[in-house]
Amino acid sequence: MNEPAYLTYFRALCAIPHGSGQTRDVSDFCVAFAKAHGLDCAQDEYNNVVIRKPASEGYEDHPTVVLQGHLDMVCEKDADCPIDMTQEPLCLCFDGDKLYAKGTTLGGDDGIAVAYALAILADDSIEHPALEVLLTTDEEIGMIGANALDPALITGRTLINMDSEEEGILLAGCAGGAHILLRMPITREHCAGKRYSLRVTGLPGGHSGTEINMGHANADYVLADALRLLAKHEGFALLSMEGGTKDNAIPRQACAVFLLQDDDAFVAETLAALEIDEKKLYPADKDLRFIWQSETDDEADALDDVSTGRFLDLLAQLPNGVQAMSAYDASLVQTSLNLGILKIDKDSVQITISVRSSINAERDALLRVIESCADAARATAQVGGLYPGWEFKQDSRLRDVMCHAFETCYGKLPKVQTIHAGLECGLFCNMWEDLDCISMGPNMYDIHTPRESLSLASAARTWHYLLEVLKNL
Ligand SMILES: [Zn+2]
């Protein structure tokens, strides 16, 4: 068996449970590896690991290169999979070009980065400048390890992040972000009428960053539009509304309950006409449906007119979706926001919005716009989870070397892109201002799902490409 060394290390990693929040063992494994190979190593209380290796002969005066990946993986499994991912090894399967784990996520994201790094460190025949291998923890649950990293542990200012999933694409920028919670106090008054429930359904949703430009409707906004029309009718009184469960997902469903004078025909006509219009507005959402039910006459404490007006005005004024495209590449989103969670409880409306931008100043400006909308609605706004973006740099020696090496290996140039989602590179660029970095990786499919797989041929090509890059840095 002539298995490449990185695959052997990958197997070893898969034998150690290493879901987010459970990285002690895999971190210790890397420390033991360093000791066994006589390499300098540091481990912190977050289980981050840094392993250093001196330059190979002839590279002593080249700048130090940081190879980086994260140790934790997302643990997802099929409903009928018996494996306990906190205790048991993954069950690796080879199927043609695909490597996957039976019934579970594979953790190719980001185990392949760790495997590459260890294989490079272990092999004294590879040519490279001085190396610092930086293995972080809990990337998948908020980049906790990278956030807590002591910047003094790393001296290199050239960093290759191996946490991307598409061969042939070099990422050279990513979004930063924040979430913002709006809380609008409401006043309720006793009302009577026929009780209606209304649901918006059939929307595909999607990731609030990478899929924000797919043209899908946000269920909360569609429902608010319907309520705006229904509120024109006499006796409309809103009791509740709810839509969305995560700030980083576009809401697929939303529902509202309200009182109205008994007029099913008005509701039916209004919603039927609106459904047609909304489908024209969102041609990608053919399955969008309004599902409504009228129930019995009821009495309840509904939002008073002022609160209802403020609430619907707030939703009408809040920006949503893509706000700016990149000046470098018109196909890339630069700034966006997503209203992810909305709910109305007894005495307030609560709205959680996630904001993303690759330009920190633009993210902050957008937060100010949202705050101003909140002010107008007499709502409070609380910003949290602020993380920095990684701005595309006009000049990058690393990018030049990586593009050139790509041409040598593949006979064509790679695509250089930015991504509208967070990467640890954003934190690192903020930590070390003069950092030059690129994110790359082999082809992986369906990451974060039990269908996750890694292309073995792509992993082999990427390995040789990585060695070519190191030789030229
Ligand atoms: Zn990852």
Write down the domain tally.
2
- Span from first to last CA? 32 Å
Strand coverage percent: 25-35%
Helix content: 25-40%
Bound molecules: zinc ion
The total beta strand count reads 21
> How would you name the CATH homologous superfamily of the largest domain?
Zn peptidases
Q: Strand pairing plus helix content: what structural class?
A: alpha+beta
Figure out the total of helices: 11
CATH class of the largest domain: Alpha Beta
Describe the largest sheet.
9 strands, antiparallel
Q: Could you tell me the radius of gyration in angstroms? A: 26 Å
- Provide the CATH topology of the largest domain: Aminopeptidase
CATH architecture descriptor name of the largest domain: 3-Layer(aba) Sandwich
pLDDT averaged residue by residue: 94
Unreliable residue runs: none
Principal-axis shape equals: elongated
Question: Which features would summarize this protein structure in a list?
Answer:
473 residues, Alpha-Beta Plaits, 2 domains, 11 helices, binds zinc ion
Structural write-up:
The chain has 11 helices and 21 strands. The longest helix has 18 residues. The chain is an alpha+beta fold. A hairpin with a 5-residue loop joins strand 1 and strand 2. It has 2 domains: 254 residues, Zn peptidases (Aminopeptidase, 3-Layer(aba) Sandwich); 210 residues, 2-Layer Sandwich (Alpha-Beta Plaits).
